[in-house]
Amino acid sequence: MKIGIDLGGSHIAIGVIDNKGKIIEKVEKRITKSEKSNIKKVIEEYIIEKTLNFLQEYKITEMGIAVPGTVKNQIIVKSVNLGLKNYEIIKNLQERIQLPIKIKNDAKCAALAENMYGALKSYDRTIFLTLGTGIGGATILHNKLLNTGELPGCEFGHMLIEKNGNSCRCGKKGCWETYASMKAFKDSLREILNLDEKTSGKELLDILRKMDKNHPKYMQTHKLIEQYIEYLSIGISNLINIFEPEAIGIGGSFVFYEDIFLEKLKTKLLQDNLLFNERKEINIQTAILNNDAGMIGATL
What we know:
The chain is of the alpha/beta class and 300 residues long. It has helices spanning 39-57, 89-93, 106-117, 177-180, 182-192, 201-210, 218-243, 258-271, 293-297, and strands at 2-7, 11-17, 23-30, 62-67, 70-72, 75-79, 84-87, 101-105, 125-131, 135-141, 144-145, 247-252, 284-286. Helix 5 (182-192) packs antiparallel against helix 7 (218-243) and helix 7 (218-243) packs across helix 8. It is globular.
């Protein structure tokens, strides 16, 4: 068995994974804004504590970590959503954890898992997106990740969709993820509903599902959803026009909002003259492994 870790922009999930990709046991925590001021300590203490606990119960052979950002030579070169640069996480962890440890971009890990065990296993040419704190991406051709050399590439979230638009934590302006990440949507929804960051994504989803036209914030919320779908469709249409994939996989917290967004997204892509090559249908698959894809893929 292996330990898979999904280090997200706003959470850490750690699981024991068997050789068939099944989760035997899992723990996770949210990373608060205040914790990000001391993020390395928070990450390392949580991983070390939970991993040592698992090592007492299971025979673990190795560990994999999925991280949001650029990985090179087993170092996190840059993770804008966690505020990390040139972070030697493996070196620090191995002072306490005596296991082989590998590390890879989280979207790439999630794509590998969905290609091996999940929604994309029946296709040869696919694009995978993780919609969460940011937007990560991967391209898989004939069961292999697109090789972009020393740096991982496929930073779909940082394609520019608005000239001089929203400021992104990467230092540029107008990046797609500042408009179409799930964080961007949830933050805007909290603002409309006058809710603070402690309101979870699940609570927001419950509010959306129960909201009817008599709700005082219905029109604002409806406009927000339409605007979000528009931004999401712009980026996805660009990717379709470039790669012409057989299927598009979407993971991250988007999967929990599938009933709110997915059909609207497909309709927008087909009806708004966004695609260079006309299509009669759009094959978008939400991640079967849900938000666990990165953690499972980290063991691959």
